[in-house]
Amino acid sequence: MPEPTRYPADVLVDVTARVLEGLGAPTDLARLVGGSLVGSNLVGHDSHGFIRVLEYAGWVRGGHLVPDARANLAWSDGGTAMVDGHWGWGQDAATLATAQIIENAREHGVASVVLTRGNHVGRLGEWVETMASAGLMGIAFCNTGGAVVAPYGGTKRVLGTNPYAWSMPGPDGDHLVLDFSTAVVAAGKVVLAAMSGDAVPDGALLDHEGRPTTHASDLAAGGALRAFGGHKGSGLSVLIEMAAGMLSGTLPAAITDSGYGNGTVFLALDVARFVDLDAVAAVSRQFAGLLHAAAASPDEAVLLPGEVETRTRLERAAAGIPVPSGVRSGVRDLAAELGVDLPEFHEEPVTTNGALDDQTG
């Protein structure tokens, strides 16, 4: 397979924004979503990045995503609040929810915000990292529209991929950010693998007859992802399905046939109410040193949650973000259908100065 072409982050933000505007999004929302998606590419989570433009276009055309809708604060009562996404861009709703939970947590010490009628919010780690930057411990989880995961001991699609994210403030902006799908592999990574012609790891996927497979295309053909960690990951996914599904009103994925949307729960705790943030930073540095020193050999590494993303951000800011040819062709075809010109989105490698505007969050 040929090496993917690399593009500067700001070019991909511009391309994404213009395509989303072609789908009916106001300029500010188009750039916000573009910045969030490309921000995911920048830290190495390509499954939640630029590739999602194609999926979002299908939702807009199917009437499931309202491109000019804006999220609003439905209500706020003490440390609790509800944000209504009005089936618009999930990143708009998540941005509002994150700002609201930071405000409420600073006032009350702890806070919770539930997002209802929200589409795909992107990478959950983005939102808990923002909370950590505000000095908060952040937690977020959501049930995902469309059941594509088999529970432990089963072969049928019953669960969503149901991601979970958790953060703590770290030193010098290097926050601890844990962010994972409760499936062995996120569905978006399987879609990306199918477009790139790559295989998925052993033990991650079943075909439509319940047999183990490594062919990414088997998911779209009726197969099912497996929950990670056996009964532990499956149990966590069930709790997310019920908690997020019921609090947000989206219901568990297997009960509703919507096939889209994220019922999302945000939780935050003001760390400074319990311990000085400088002390947290000092202990974090010391603990990181102990973890790094625990590596089995000089050729291996023990990394903190979020450290891979930090390293990838530095590398891709300098070298550009790789875009597989299938994704590039799909976006160019979509742009042509919408009458959107993308002169800078060509197939030749481009130089990058690492620029990424402030829209990435």
Low-confidence stretches: 352-361
Strand fraction equals 15-25%
DSSP helical segment count: 11
The SSE order reads: EHHHEEHEHEEEEHEEHEHEHHEH
Give the CA-based shape: globular
Gap from first CA to last CA: 33 Å
What gyration radius follows from the Cα positions, in whole Å? 20 Å
Helix content: 40-55%
The order of strands across the largest sheet is 2-3-4-12-5-7-8
The average pLDDT is 91
The largest β sheet comes out as: 7 strands, mixed
Structural class: alpha+beta
Q: How many E strands?
A: 13
Please characterize this protein's 3D structure.
Helices cover 40% and strands 17% of the residues. Residues 352-361 have low confidence and may be disordered. It is α+β, with helices and mostly antiparallel strands and 361 residues long. A hairpin with a 5-residue loop joins strand 9 (205-206) and strand 10 (212-213). The strands form three sheets. A seven-stranded mixed sheet has the order 2-3-4-12-5-7-8. It is globular. It has eleven helices and 13 strands. Helix 1 (9-22) runs antiparallel to helix 2 (27-42) and helix 4 (90-108) runs parallel beside helix 5.
